[in-house]
Amino acid sequence: xxxxxxxxxxxxxxxxxxxxxxxxxxxxxxxxxxxxxxxxxxxxxxxxxxxxxxxxxxxxxxxxxxxxxxxxxxxxxxxxxxxxxxxxxxxxxxxxxxxxxxxxxxxxxxxxxxxxxxxxxxxxxxxxxxxxxxxxxxxxxxxxxxxxxxxxxxxxxxxxxxxxxxxxxxxxxxxxxxxxxxxxxxxxxxxx
Length: 192
Known about the structure:
Blueprint: H1 2-13, H2 24-29, H3 34-63, H4 72-94, H5 96-102, H6 113-125, H7 129-157, H8 169-184
Helix pairs in contact: 1-7, 3-4, 3-6, 3-7, 4-5, 4-6, 7-8
């Protein structure tokens, strides 16, 4: 039950995009079409989950036993960059059109602050290996959910009569704010 609550908490109540405001760059940049947003969400979920596992191992098996906690940022960024590079190579090999669609946002997963935030929260919260994995996967699922919801709304906006001053980024930011308010409604259910 604790693991389920951890997953739901990471995905919904403490959503990295809508509650913590981390990962806003791909949220705005790659959420114009649902398939692209879903693919970006899956790539980010893979990086979040695998990075969470390796971050826990590096933190608890290397950094803490050898009193090298000061290397936390450098080692976490190296881990994240490695998994992003692996994801980029796999997507390029599997689907060249998807690779071109994601464009610059794919390598920029490395600088996605949601992933570094997740990596820094794992030692801070004192999660076990299993809890870290579930936390990373839940954060990725929440990231994907927010991306797909935003993409669905932006696709429907193509058929809406949006006033000219609000077209583009302004209406996108208004929608993001309304989504954040809606997700805040879940915050009383669970806390992390």
